[in-house]
From TrEMBL:
It comes from Galactobacter caseinivorans. InterPro entries: DUF1023. This is DUF1023 domain-containing protein. Residues 236-276 form the DUF1023 domain. It comes from the Bacteria.
Amino acid sequence: MRPTPIAASQSSARPKNLKYFATTLRANDSTDRRNLDDFQRAWTAFEAACSWVPVEQMTLVSGGTRWRSENGTDATFADTVAAAFEKAGSGGLSNSVLAMIVAEQITGRPGRLFKRSLSSYEEAARQWKKLGLTPGDIRALPLNVQFEIENMGGIPASARNVASRQALDAALKDPEVAYRILGGYRSGFSRQEFDEQLKGLNEGLAEADKVAAVRCSLAENRVAQLVGLRIADKALTASISIGNMDTANNVTVNVPGAQTTLTSMKDQMSAVKSQTLAMRSVGASGLMGSWMGSWMGFARRAGVMPRNG
C-alpha cells in the first residue's frame, strides 16, 4: 500500500483508499488479537494438563504479536500518508517530504528540512532550489518544519508565505502546540497575549488579502504574503506584505514602533491601503512592481523611553 511512483522524485496516492485500508487493517487486527488471546489461554491449559508432552518450541504467540505490531505500523503509515496528501491538496508529493512526515510520525522525532545549519542566505537559496518543493509539499510538511521554513531567510517569499499561512492556521486551531514550538515558555511572553495576537494577526492577514486583491492590475503582484511569524523580545512578530516580494523592484516598509502588537494588524493593513491610494493619486512610478510591508510586534526594552516627534 505504498504510494505509486509518478516521477523520479514524487509519489501519488488516493487518501480515501489509504484510510479504508488502515480502518480495515485495524478492524482485522482487533479480531486477530482476540483469536490470539484465545489460543494463548488454550495453549496454557494444554501445557498444564499435558506436561509430559515434549515441546521444543512454540512461536505462534510471539510471532503473532510481532505480526500485529507490524500491521499497526502499516496502518499508521497509511493514515499518515493519507493526511499528508489531504493537506497538500494535490495528487503528487515529493518523496523526501513523505519520508520526513512518516519518519516523524513513526519515530516521534521532529524532522528537519536541511541536514545541516546554513551559513548564508545564498546557501539557503541553493539548497532550497535543489529540493524543488511545491506549495503542496510545503503544506504537507510537519508543523515544526513549516515554522523552520517561514522564518528562513534566503528562500522565496512565496514559499515562506505558504508555510507561514499553514503555521498560522495550525496555531489558531491548537495554540498550545504552536506556543511550545516557538519557545513561548522560555520567552516570558504569556499564552494569553499569544492567543490574542494570533487572532489579531489572522484578522490583519484577511484584510491584507482584500487590499491586495484590488491593489493593482498585475496578477503576479495581486498578493499578500505573510513571513517571519515568531516570538522575539517578549512579543509575537510577523511581517505582511502587500505585493510580491520575490518580483518587486520597489519596497516600502511600515514599522509602527515599539509597544505595537499584532492585535492592531488589521488597522495597519487599512493604513497600507490608504498609502497605496495616495501613491496612485500622485502617479508614483513603479507602483505596479512594488510591495509594501508592515513589520509588527515588538516590545519597548526596559529603560528605553519613546521619543516624541
